[in-house]
Design brief:
60s Ribosomal Protein L30, Chain: A, 2 helices
Length: 126
């Protein structure tokens, strides 16, 4: 059985999907982009600020399922320019304990929704 997870502290979906789905003890989040949930505006002033907003949105989706980044077992990072990897990775790394960090992949793609520079999704377990 699946349970839909939603929160107003992260951006509302911009299509036919949910912020996250909990199936048993496993949470599958949708990709988060740098939309400020309070204003609905994109945060694109710098790759660091954009990545921070993405991670804060992801944190709120996890919290809505009573989880934290410690519950995350896998992430997927999609970026529009691999030259931004170092700055994205530096911000991303502040949200995890290096010794218990999740598995992940980072993929450069041609475009992302709303032409953002980074999108991150996660799988977490209780």
């Amino acid at each position: 059985m699946k349970k839909i997870i939603t929160t107003t502290k992260a951006p509302a979906p911009i299509g036919p999907y949910n912020q996250a789905v909990l199936s048993g003890n496993t949470l599958y989040t949708s990709g988060q982009i740098a939309i400020n949930p309070e204003t609905g505006e994109l945060i694109l002033s710098s790759i660091k600020e954009e990545t921070t907003q993405v991670m804060e949105n992801l944190k709120e989706v996890l919290a809505a399922a009573d989880m934290t980044f410690e519950n995350v077992i896998k992430t997927s990072i999609f970026i529009s320019d691999m030259n931004n990897f170092g700055e994205i990775n530096a911000i991303y790394g502040t949200y995890f304990n290096e010794e218990t960090a999740p598995a992940r992949e980072t993929v450069e793609v041609a475009n992302l929704p709303k032409f953002v520079n980074v999108e991150i999704s996660a799988i977490a377990i209780k």
